[in-house]
Amino acid sequence: MKITVDFEECLKDSPRFRATIEEVEGDVCELESKLDKLVKLCIGMIDAGKAYNAANKQFVNGIRELAQQSAKDEVIESSLTKFAESLQEMINYHTILFDQAQRSIKTQLQTFVKDDLRKFKEAKKQFDKVSEEKENALIKNAQAPRNKQHEVEEATNILTATRKCFRHIVLDYVLQINVLQSKRRSEILKSMLSFMYAHLTFFHQGYDLFSELQPLMKQLGGQLDQLVVDAAKEKRDMEQKHSTIQQKDFSNDDTKLEYNVDADNGIAMEGYLFKRASNAFKTWNRRWFSIQNNQLVYQKKFKDNPTVVVEDLRLCTVKHCEDIERRFCFEVVSPTKSCMMQADSEKLRQAWIKAVQNSIATAFRDKGDSGEKLDRKSSTSTGSLDSGGEPKERSLKGESALQKVLAIPGNACCCDCGQPDPRWASINLGITLCIQCSGIHRSLGVHFSKVRSLTLDSWEPELLKLMCELGNRVINQIYEARREELGARKPQPGDPRHEVEAYIKAKYVDRRFVRRPSDEELRTKVVSLSKEEKRLSSSSDHLPPKAPPPTPKLRPGSHASGQSVKSADSGIQNSADGSREMLATTPSSNSLADAEAAEAPPVPATLPTASPCKEVVFFEPKEYSPGLQLYWASFSRSLPDMAEALAHGAEVNWVNTEEDKRTPLIMAVHGGSLVTCEFLLQNAVNVNQLDAQGRGPLHHATMLGHTGQVCLFLKRGANQNAADIDEKTPLSIAVEAANADIVTLLRLAKMNEEMREAEGPYNPSGDETYQDIFQDFTHMASNDPDKLNRYQQYDPQRP
């Protein structure tokens, strides 16, 4: 180690030593100033780099959005996607570079300044102090009078002690100077060398990345030349076609219309007509009419569902109409109504009349085809071709579970690493997974994730609906809400397994990226969900009739003096009078399919004098919690909100002590959704948990006449022998309500249970007839719930 200040010289305390010390102190002071400046410049560079990365990331997102918008052009989409991925990798490399700069320059040099330079300054203070004391002792010793022996001795002793102390302090100070001078060299060089190696790695990674991208860029360059040539040719062709059309004779604006029964799109004829409304004002509106599937329909806009004017053209006639003020009118008359229409010219009127007549004749000639078309006709209440009587699930018949699940937006790639074409799923989370991530999910345990194959395993209808109600996009919005904020990198296909496993555990086990709601946000969410069922019940025209929605009530004590809470019957009457206050003001966050919503039973012709179960009403709770969000989300049939509540730590068996100890599963029963119940069951809910009345979910489903839910609970081990506080079992309730389907299911389940106990290990699954019947009820509940609806609910006061 090179000695900057000589130890022997410091003991002499010569002017040469003092000059050296003064030079070293000045050098250290300047060093500190330069290091502080360098650290500040490094911080500025890192901040600017982070801002650059943020802007670059937005730019890359813009490229991805442009690629998605160009999905119809495979060349543009694939190229932009690849470019965006490469630029994203460069952003990641930049981030690593700035992190290394922070560690090597900022942190390391700041540590050197704070530790080593601080020790030097402390040693300097002690040296200056003892130097001053030594100087005073020398002066005092020189001034001691010769004739005063005691003062001479005292001054001599002080001088001796001061010199001894000075020697120790000056040697320590010189040691600190020498160590500092030696260490500054290693610290500065080590810091800068680390920073330069970070740059070397950054440029190597960038070079390797773009070396892989270079063949694609060269290929696109060659294609681009051809694209320029093709574009110029297309422009010339368009200009030639434009000039050719301009030369045509447009004196007659009538478009040539022809009736074509064999058209590829099934539309025999289409065009604009004026239609006279059936209101009191008899207004005329221009609409796009078409003859298709043996029906006359019209649309206002292309995206609108067609409205049916005539459901079966075989039952109608068409005739000229000359007895009104307008010209070119004709009338289509059916047994139930007539429709007046106006063409733009006499030629067009004749063409439409001929088209309708030809369609009628064709329908009569080909009765077989017309029968199939009539099966697809719309109901008169909706007037839509797409709202046929056949459930939507039927249209998917024959498709595999893989096709149905992957059709959900976001499911075409693995939820956790983005691997395309996944073949596995987590059924309690509602996501699709690649084979590597599915193995990691299995290792988490079934209390976190239940993995099933999309191609090898069989899928129940209600489970398939659950997968279609959630999906990767919905779940990632919940479990990755704070991922970018925390700077966590999402795994990519091909990443090492230990990195993917660490990310998945952080995501689902630790829930590190879930955004926790504030108290006010949670309150707003719960109140909105409590109002959702009312909106679904009262404002959704497409839903079938349901039992009367809950009557709004307030807590006791919140009424004005003398004002009482309305009963359920008075609430129903007020609803009929149109005077009851509407609770729902917010749109639904998750509107279920029509077939699913049809699970709820219709309103009976004569309402019972007492409600079948205690009325579901929203009271202001003492405190809001994720469990309360799960409670009301289950009632409002909102699976995304239920998944969010579980991610926030909601207990799946949460009990509402303020509302008869009801649970989310009981509220799902009252919401009328089979899929909601399935979601809770897949997340380990207790199917036999009772409320304050001693009633479990099976009791409530039986009372409400929800046959599909009864079937589901029996399959999942619900105790049908449990009796409530009135000593009523589900079977006795179903018998009193005369609900034949539920009585059949309960008795079959009891018989199957007895057979399994009798036969023991020789037949663990029970009777095959029982399995077949339950399977039929399961498919009916999911695909055709109207067949299971019961108009008569259980009334405990029925004699």
UniProtKB/TrEMBL annotation:
- Give the membrane topology: Peripheral membrane protein
Q: How is this protein annotated for GO cellular component? A: endosome membrane; plasma membrane
Please state every residue range assigned to the domain named Arf-GAP.
Answer: 399-521
Chain spans, region Disordered: 367-396, 520-606
Q: Which GO terms describe its molecular function?
A: GTPase activator activity; zinc ion binding
| Keyword entries, A-Z | ANK repeat, Cell membrane, Coiled coil, Endosome, GTPase activation, Membrane, Metal-binding, Repeat, Zinc, Zinc-finger
Compartment annotation: Cell membrane; Endosome membrane
Query: Where would I find the ANK repeats?
Result: 660-692, 693-725
Listed Polar residues bias regions: 560-577
Q: How is its activity regulated?
A: GAP activity stimulated by phosphatidylinositol 4,5-bisphosphate (PIP2) and phosphatidic acid.
Q: Which InterPro entries match?
A: ACAP1/2/3-like, AH/BAR_dom_sf, Ankyrin_rpt, Ankyrin_rpt-contain_sf, ARFGAP/RecO, ArfGAP_dom, ArfGAP_dom_sf, BAR_dom
UniProt lists compositionally biased (Basic and acidic residues) regions at 367-378, 520-536
- Is Ubl conjugation among the key words of this record? no
Domain (PH) ranges: 266-361
Which residue stretches does the UniProt record annotate as biased composition, category Low complexity? 379-388, 591-606
Q: Does the UniProt entry include the keyword Zinc?
A: yes
Give the matching PANTHER family: ARF-GAP WITH COILED-COIL, ANK REPEAT AND PH DOMAIN-CONTAINING PROTEIN 2, CENTAURIN/ARF
Q: What's written under domain?
A: The BAR domain mediates homodimerization, it can neither bind membrane nor impart curvature, but instead requires the neighboring PH domain to achieve these functions.
- Function, as annotated: GTPase-activating protein for the ADP ribosylation factor family.
- Can you name this protein? Arf-GAP with coiled-coil, ANK repeat and PH domain-containing protein
